[in-house]
Protein backbone atom coordinates (compact mmCIF):
# COMPACT_ATOMS: atom_id res chain seq x y z
CA UNK A 1 0.00 0.00 0.00
CA UNK A 2 2.95 2.34 0.55
CA UNK A 3 3.75 2.18 -3.16
CA UNK A 4 0.14 3.02 -4.08
CA UNK A 5 0.14 5.88 -1.57
CA UNK A 6 3.38 7.19 -3.08
CA UNK A 7 1.88 7.16 -6.57
CA UNK A 8 -1.17 9.01 -5.26
CA UNK A 9 1.07 11.57 -3.57
CA UNK A 10 2.69 12.23 -6.95
CA UNK A 11 -0.71 13.23 -8.30
CA UNK A 12 -1.10 10.13 -10.49
CA UNK A 13 -4.55 8.98 -9.41
CA UNK A 14 -5.29 6.85 -12.47
CA UNK A 15 -1.92 5.11 -12.20
CA UNK A 16 -2.61 4.34 -8.53
CA UNK A 17 -6.03 2.89 -9.38
CA UNK A 18 -4.52 0.77 -12.16
CA UNK A 19 -1.71 -0.43 -9.89
CA UNK A 20 -4.19 -1.66 -7.29
CA UNK A 21 -6.21 -3.41 -10.01
CA UNK A 22 -3.13 -5.22 -11.32
CA UNK A 23 -2.10 -6.26 -7.80
CA UNK A 24 -5.58 -7.69 -7.20
CA UNK A 25 -5.38 -9.61 -10.47
CA UNK A 26 -1.99 -11.02 -9.49
CA UNK A 27 -3.18 -12.24 -6.09
CA UNK A 28 -6.40 -13.65 -7.57
CA UNK A 29 -4.25 -15.62 -10.00
CA UNK A 30 -2.07 -16.84 -7.12
CA UNK A 31 -5.10 -17.77 -5.00
CA UNK A 32 -6.64 -19.77 -7.86
CA UNK A 33 -3.45 -21.84 -7.94
CA UNK A 34 -3.26 -22.22 -4.14
CA UNK A 35 -0.04 -20.23 -4.03
CA UNK A 36 -1.59 -17.97 -1.38
CA UNK A 37 -4.50 -18.67 0.95
CA UNK A 38 -6.43 -15.52 0.02
CA UNK A 39 -6.14 -12.19 -1.77
CA UNK A 40 -5.05 -9.66 0.90
CA UNK A 41 -6.11 -6.78 -1.36
CA UNK A 42 -9.61 -8.10 -2.04
CA UNK A 43 -11.40 -5.60 0.23
CA UNK A 44 -9.14 -2.63 -0.53
CA UNK A 45 -11.08 0.12 -2.25
CA UNK A 46 -9.62 2.15 -5.13
CA UNK A 47 -7.60 5.09 -3.78
CA UNK A 48 -9.45 7.57 -5.97
CA UNK A 49 -12.42 7.99 -8.26
CA UNK A 50 -11.33 8.60 -11.82
CA UNK A 51 -13.22 9.61 -14.91
CA UNK A 52 -13.10 7.60 -18.10
CA UNK A 53 -11.24 9.44 -20.83
CA UNK A 54 -13.35 10.67 -23.71
CA UNK A 55 -10.66 12.50 -25.68
CA UNK A 56 -10.66 12.05 -29.43
CA UNK A 57 -8.53 13.86 -31.97
CA UNK A 58 -10.19 16.44 -34.19
CA UNK A 59 -9.83 16.22 -37.97
CA UNK A 60 -7.19 18.96 -37.87
CA UNK A 61 -5.27 17.13 -35.14
CA UNK A 62 -5.43 13.87 -37.08
CA UNK A 63 -3.92 15.59 -40.11
CA UNK A 64 -1.28 17.35 -38.01
CA UNK A 65 -0.19 14.12 -36.31
CA UNK A 66 -0.12 12.27 -39.64
CA UNK A 67 2.11 14.87 -41.28
CA UNK A 68 4.34 15.17 -38.20
CA UNK A 69 4.89 11.40 -38.20
CA UNK A 70 6.94 11.71 -41.39
CA UNK A 71 9.44 13.85 -39.48
CA UNK A 72 10.00 11.23 -36.77
CA UNK A 73 12.94 8.88 -37.00
CA UNK A 74 12.28 5.36 -38.28
CA UNK A 75 10.40 3.32 -37.12
CA UNK A 76 8.37 5.70 -34.95
CA UNK A 77 6.74 7.58 -37.80
CA UNK A 78 5.56 4.33 -39.36
CA UNK A 79 4.35 3.15 -35.96
CA UNK A 80 2.18 6.23 -35.45
CA UNK A 81 0.72 5.92 -38.93
CA UNK A 82 -0.07 2.27 -38.17
CA UNK A 83 -1.88 3.36 -35.00
CA UNK A 84 -4.01 5.68 -37.12
CA UNK A 85 -4.62 3.23 -39.95
CA UNK A 86 -5.51 0.17 -37.85
CA UNK A 87 -6.84 1.50 -34.53
CA UNK A 88 -5.15 -1.35 -32.66
CA UNK A 89 -3.65 -1.22 -29.18
CA UNK A 90 -0.21 0.23 -28.57
CA UNK A 91 1.14 -3.01 -27.13
CA UNK A 92 -0.08 -5.00 -30.14
CA UNK A 93 1.28 -2.61 -32.76
CA UNK A 94 4.63 -1.93 -31.09
CA UNK A 95 5.39 -5.66 -30.65
CA UNK A 96 4.28 -6.70 -34.13
CA UNK A 97 6.49 -9.37 -35.72
CA UNK A 98 6.93 -10.05 -39.41
CA UNK A 99 5.61 -13.60 -39.03
CA UNK A 100 2.26 -12.15 -37.91
CA UNK A 101 1.71 -10.67 -41.38
CA UNK A 102 0.29 -12.89 -44.09
CA UNK A 103 -0.31 -11.09 -47.36
CA UNK A 104 -2.59 -8.17 -46.57
CA UNK A 105 -3.71 -9.43 -43.17
CA UNK A 106 -2.09 -9.03 -39.76
CA UNK A 107 -2.85 -11.92 -37.42
CA UNK A 108 -2.32 -10.92 -33.79
CA UNK A 109 -1.64 -14.12 -31.78
CA UNK A 110 -4.14 -15.15 -29.14
CA UNK A 111 -1.54 -14.89 -26.38
CA UNK A 112 -0.98 -11.25 -27.26
CA UNK A 113 -4.67 -10.29 -27.32
CA UNK A 114 -5.35 -12.50 -24.27
CA UNK A 115 -8.43 -14.12 -25.79
CA UNK A 116 -9.42 -17.59 -26.91
CA UNK A 117 -8.53 -16.90 -30.52
CA UNK A 118 -6.22 -14.76 -32.62
CA UNK A 119 -7.36 -11.38 -33.93
CA UNK A 120 -7.21 -10.78 -37.70
CA UNK A 121 -6.63 -7.18 -38.79
CA UNK A 122 -6.96 -6.52 -42.53
CA UNK A 123 -4.20 -4.23 -43.81
CA UNK A 124 -5.28 -1.56 -46.25
CA UNK A 125 -2.96 -0.59 -49.09
CA UNK A 126 -1.59 2.38 -47.15
CA UNK A 127 -1.02 0.25 -44.04
CA UNK A 128 0.70 -2.42 -46.13
CA UNK A 129 2.93 0.16 -47.83
CA UNK A 130 3.77 1.73 -44.47
CA UNK A 131 5.01 -1.59 -43.09
CA UNK A 132 6.79 -2.44 -46.34
CA UNK A 133 8.90 0.72 -45.96
CA UNK A 134 10.57 -0.87 -42.92
CA UNK A 135 13.48 -3.31 -43.01
CA UNK A 136 12.53 -6.95 -42.56
CA UNK A 137 15.32 -8.50 -40.48
CA UNK A 138 13.81 -11.98 -40.56
CA UNK A 139 10.58 -13.89 -40.11
CA UNK A 140 10.49 -13.87 -36.31
CA UNK A 141 11.92 -10.37 -35.81
CA UNK A 142 10.10 -7.26 -34.66
CA UNK A 143 8.67 -4.90 -37.26
CA UNK A 144 9.14 -1.69 -35.27
CA UNK A 145 12.70 -1.89 -34.04
CA UNK A 146 15.92 0.06 -33.65
CA UNK A 147 17.95 -3.03 -32.77
CA UNK A 148 17.87 -4.95 -36.02
CA UNK A 149 14.70 -6.78 -35.08
CA UNK A 150 16.03 -8.17 -31.80
CA UNK A 151 13.73 -6.07 -29.60
CA UNK A 152 10.67 -3.93 -30.19
CA UNK A 153 10.87 -0.15 -30.06
CA UNK A 154 9.75 1.62 -26.91
CA UNK A 155 10.73 5.07 -25.63
CA UNK A 156 7.11 6.12 -26.12
CA UNK A 157 7.16 9.12 -23.79
CA UNK A 158 10.06 10.84 -25.56
CA UNK A 159 8.61 10.17 -29.01
CA UNK A 160 5.19 11.43 -27.89
CA UNK A 161 6.77 14.70 -26.74
CA UNK A 162 8.44 15.03 -30.13
CA UNK A 163 5.29 14.41 -32.14
CA UNK A 164 3.42 16.89 -29.92
CA UNK A 165 6.08 19.49 -30.73
CA UNK A 166 6.08 18.75 -34.44
CA UNK A 167 2.29 18.62 -34.79
CA UNK A 168 1.43 21.46 -32.45
CA UNK A 169 -1.03 19.20 -30.63
CA UNK A 170 -1.18 18.07 -27.00
CA UNK A 171 -3.41 16.53 -24.36
CA UNK A 172 -3.91 13.21 -26.14
CA UNK A 173 -2.52 9.71 -25.69
CA UNK A 174 -1.86 6.85 -28.09
CA UNK A 175 -4.98 5.14 -26.75
CA UNK A 176 -6.95 8.24 -27.72
CA UNK A 177 -6.02 7.47 -31.34
CA UNK A 178 -7.75 4.12 -30.91
CA UNK A 179 -10.84 5.86 -29.50
CA UNK A 180 -10.72 8.29 -32.41
CA UNK A 181 -10.72 5.49 -34.98
CA UNK A 182 -13.67 3.83 -33.23
CA UNK A 183 -15.56 7.13 -33.28
CA UNK A 184 -14.80 7.58 -36.96
CA UNK A 185 -16.34 4.18 -37.66
CA UNK A 186 -19.57 5.46 -36.12
CA UNK A 187 -19.32 8.64 -38.18
CA UNK A 188 -18.86 6.53 -41.32
CA UNK A 189 -21.92 4.42 -40.45
CA UNK A 190 -19.91 1.23 -39.97
CA UNK A 191 -22.13 -1.37 -38.33
CA UNK A 192 -21.55 -1.50 -34.59
CA UNK A 193 -20.81 -5.23 -34.61
CA UNK A 194 -18.21 -4.80 -37.35
CA UNK A 195 -16.58 -1.87 -35.53
CA UNK A 196 -16.36 -3.98 -32.37
CA UNK A 197 -14.72 -6.77 -34.32
CA UNK A 198 -12.13 -4.42 -35.82
CA UNK A 199 -11.29 -3.04 -32.39
CA UNK A 200 -11.43 -6.54 -30.87
CA UNK A 201 -13.68 -5.35 -28.08
CA UNK A 202 -15.10 -7.94 -25.71
CA UNK A 203 -18.25 -9.76 -26.86
CA UNK A 204 -21.07 -10.82 -24.61
CA UNK A 205 -20.68 -14.36 -23.27
CA UNK A 206 -23.44 -15.87 -25.41
CA UNK A 207 -22.22 -14.15 -28.56
CA UNK A 208 -18.64 -15.14 -27.79
CA UNK A 209 -19.64 -18.79 -27.59
CA UNK A 210 -22.05 -19.06 -30.50
CA UNK A 211 -20.95 -16.40 -32.99
CA UNK A 212 -17.65 -17.63 -34.44
CA UNK A 213 -17.85 -15.60 -37.65
CA UNK A 214 -14.54 -13.80 -38.23
CA UNK A 215 -16.04 -10.80 -40.13
CA UNK A 216 -12.80 -10.53 -42.13
CA UNK A 217 -14.41 -9.09 -45.28
CA UNK A 218 -16.53 -6.70 -43.25
CA UNK A 219 -13.50 -5.55 -41.25
CA UNK A 220 -11.53 -4.98 -44.44
CA UNK A 221 -14.37 -2.89 -45.86
CA UNK A 222 -14.56 -0.81 -42.67
CA UNK A 223 -10.81 -0.17 -42.53
CA UNK A 224 -10.72 0.69 -46.23
CA UNK A 225 -13.54 3.16 -45.67
CA UNK A 226 -11.58 4.72 -42.79
CA UNK A 227 -8.39 4.78 -44.88
CA UNK A 228 -10.22 6.72 -47.58
CA UNK A 229 -11.49 9.27 -45.05
CA UNK A 230 -8.07 9.54 -43.38
CA UNK A 231 -6.29 10.20 -46.67
CA UNK A 232 -8.90 12.84 -47.48
CA UNK A 233 -8.32 14.56 -44.13
CA UNK A 234 -4.54 14.66 -44.56
CA UNK A 235 -4.75 15.92 -48.15
CA UNK A 236 -6.66 19.10 -47.38
From TrEMBL:
GO terms for molecular function: DNA binding. The keyword DNA-binding applies. Residues 51-224 form the Tyr recombinase domain. Keywords: DNA integration, DNA recombination, DNA-binding. Belongs to the 'phage' integrase family. GO terms for biological process: DNA integration; DNA recombination. This is Tyr recombinase domain-containing protein. Gene3D superfamilies: 1.10.150.130, Intergrase catalytic core. It comes from Sphingomonas taxi.
